[in-house]
Write a structure and sequence with these properties.
- This protein is α/β, with parallel strands linked by helices.
- A hairpin with a 5-residue loop joins strand 3 and strand 4.
- Helix 15 crosses helix 16 and helix 19 crosses helix 20.
- The longest helix has about 30 residues.
- It is elongated, with a radius of gyration of 40 Å.
- About 35% of the residues are buried.
- The chain binds adenosine-5'-diphosphate and zinc ion.
- Zinc ion binds next to helix 17.
- Adenosine-5'-diphosphate (ADP) binds next to helix 7, helix 13 and helix 15.
Length: about 600
């Protein structure tokens, strides 16, 4: 990996040399020449020097006389006089008659030296570098520099490596990849029947769901070398470098076949080529090279390419067509069972109390990715160490969920009494609206201890089991719940605060999706008015409709949210005494569990 830095070093190196040369020329050579320059003297000086036998060489030209002193350091020049005996006198003084005393270095010469020469040097350096690059890009391997050499990390024979057992959950993905492992173990079985493995497999899913782990596990299970490189590593400063890295990577891989080549974040090079003027040449060349390499090797030579991305929709269709990355393995966020398993896998690495309820923690951490769960376990261990305990407990785990999701407790953030009261009412407002609509405990826990993420309170929702469909009523209830916090502020304080900005955003998002994507408005029937851009990264959407429709959508969104907001206010007004009681409880204790909440609500 050091190799990759060399080119930049040498570029800077050559330019430094260039600068030094200019410096030398300007500050040393030119003054020297200046000094050697001809000094104009009058004829009298010439005559007296002749008499004093101080002349070294002399040259009598048509209209001037050039001469040097005895040492020959300085050239003098004087006009020519009508002096008949000059030659004899010079001869007598011991001067040497020369025919070519150094010409005066002309102005032209000094320009050449101080300006043109450095420029030439620079151009030469530039050409030298480009030539090296071009050669390299053209496949030359005998370069002085290791530019464009792939720096894929190789894990040979990963005996210490990751196995499928280390990847918890993700059963479908594992099942899919087991076939690859089997093929790498016994290719004969497949060759016999004439089946060829897919050359490329695309692991698709949100960040932190274990795509890299799965790829490593395939190599670990099959006991073959694993080459790994990130898509962004291919894209270099110089056009052509990425392509040559791809070539190099595949060359190495073919030598080590059977093996796994893993390209992380392939969207960095595999984005759709859009043919824009001034598009990214380097990226396109790299992609083209990758396509060429994938076409170049036969199906059965044992190199299997796995690639990961969380933006599958942005990939170039050429990359996903049959013969290239034609198999797609979804690696989704873990469900409840998956989360529990992931927690257990990572808990094995730390010392943890026996009575920890992983299922409960998994339920609390709904929506967390594998990476976040790993982080939660580690945070719990860190917390145990901080408190001087020998092992992590249930409480550590629960607190660390909040840490990972909402940030650390802000120890010295002091809310004024009034603010704290508002936050308490706001959070209870959400919970109460939710509870009254569904008649069940809406939350695991609410705390009003400020977090470093900026949240003033934190509500841990109850996981409603695995739930894939949502009815219109459920979404409406959810919107009402989002507005519940603000509604409580209005009901109790008669004024509103900035605390509801996130609620507003979420409520609007849901309301908008109902109308534009789920076909839940009466006017638009089943017409899609919006397309989702990247489903794994936030899922932002763009409208696909006329301006008039847009206006109408906006109007309906407002109407929808308004209606739910009114419903929330109504619920709170009807349960005013419970709202006060619960909020007071939360204000005093700063934390309320789902159980305590339901007890107060129901008695
Ligand atoms: P991705 O490549 O999908 O972004 P990684 O494979 O790099 O995610 O996962 C990051 C970390 O998250 C892993 O090192 C591992 O500790 C943890 N992790 C993610 N998914 C799982 C899983 N299914 N089982 C166990 N650990 C996981
Ligand atoms: Zn809120």
């Amino acid at each position: 990996m050091n190799e990759i830095k060399k080119p930049r070093k040498s570029l800077a190196f050559y330019y430094t040399i260039g600068l030094i040369v200019i410096f030398l020329i300007n500050f040393l050579a030119i003054p020297y020449m200046e000094q050697r320059r001809v000094k104009q003297v009058d004829y009298g000086t010439f005559m007296s020097m002749t008499e004093n036998r101080e002349i070294g060489q002399v040259e009598i030209q048509d209209n001037q006389i050039l001469f040097t002193d005895k040492a020959g350091d300085q050239i003098y020049k004087t006009g020519k006089m009508d002096d008949p005996n000059l030659v004899e006198r010079l001869h007598a003084s011991g001067a040497e008659f020369a025919s070519e005393i150094v010409e005066e270095p002309s102005l032209l010469m000094s320009i050449l030296m101080s300006w043109v020469l450095p420029m030439v040097i620079f151009i030469l350096i530039g050409q030298m570098l480009t030539k090296k690059l071009m050669n390299k890009a053209g496949g030359g391997n005998s370069m002085m520099f290791n530019m464009g050499k792939s720096n894929a990390k190789v894990y040979v024979k990963s005996s210490e490596g990751i196995r499928f057992a280390d990847v918890a959950g993700e059963d479908e993905a594992k099942e899919n990849l087991t076939e690859i492992v089997d093929y790498l173990h016994t290719p004969g079985k497949y060759k016999e029947i004439g089946a060829s493995m897919p050359k490329g497999i695309l692991l698709v899913g949100p960040p932190g769901t274990g795509k890299t782990m799965l790829a490593k596990a395939v190599a670990g299970e099959a006991n073959v070398p694993f080459f790994s490189m990130s898509g962004s590593e291919f894209v270099e400063m110089f056009v052509g470098m990425g392509a040559s890295k791809v070539r190099d990577l595949f060359k190495q891989a073919k030598e080590k076949a059977p093996c796994i080549v893993f390209i992380d974040e392939i969207d960095a090079i595999g984005k759709k080529r859009d043919g824009q003027i001034g598009g990214n040449d380097e990226r396109e060349q790299t992609l083209n090279q990758l396509l060429t390499e994938m076409d170049g090797f036969e199906g059965n030579n044992g190199v299997i390419i796995l690639a990961a991305t969380n933006r599958p929709e942005s990939l170039d269709p050429a990359l996903t067509r049959p013969g290239r990355f034609d198999r797609r393995v979804p690696v989704e966020l873990p469900d409840l069972k998956g989360r529990e398993e992931i927690l257990k896998v990572h808990a094995k690495k730390i010392k943890i109390a026996d009575n920890v309820d992983f299922n409960k923690i998994a339920r609390m951490a709904s929506g967390a990715s594998g990476a976040e769960l790993a982080n939660i376990v580690n945070e719990a261990a860190l917390r145990a160490v901080r408190d001087g305990r020998k092992f992590a407990t249930q409480a550590d785990m629960e607190e660390s969920i909040e840490v990972v999701i909402a940030g650390y407790q802000k120890k010295n953030a002091i809310l004024t009494t009034q603010e704290k009261l508002i936050v308490a009412y706001h959070e209870i407002g959400h919970a109460l609206v939710a509870a009254k609509q569904t008649n069940s405990a809406p939350v695991q826990k609410i705390t009003i201890i400020p977090r470093t993420s900026g949240a003033l309170g934190y509500t841990m929702q109850v996981e409603e089991g695995n739930h894939y469909l949502m009815s219109k009523e459920e979404i409406e209830n959810k919107i009402a719940t989002y507005t519940g916090g603000r509604a409580a502020e209005e009901v109790i304080f008669g004024s509103v605060t900035t605390g509801a900005s996130n609620d507003i955003e979420q409520a609007t998002k849901l309301a908008r999706a109902m109308i534009t994507r789920y076909g839940m408005s009466k006017d638009f029937d089943m017409v899609a008015l919006e397309t989702v851009n990247n489903q794994y990264l936030g899922g932002d959407a763009s409208l696909v409709c006329s301006a008039e429709t847009q206006t109408e959508i906006d109007r309906q969104v407002v109407e929808l949210v308004k209606k739910q907001h009114q419903k929330a206010v109504q619920i709170l007004l009807e349960n005013r005494d419970k709202l006060d009681e619960l909020s007071q409880f939360l204000y005093d204790r700063e934390t309320i569990t789902g159980e305590e909440f339901m007890n107060i609500l129901n008695n």
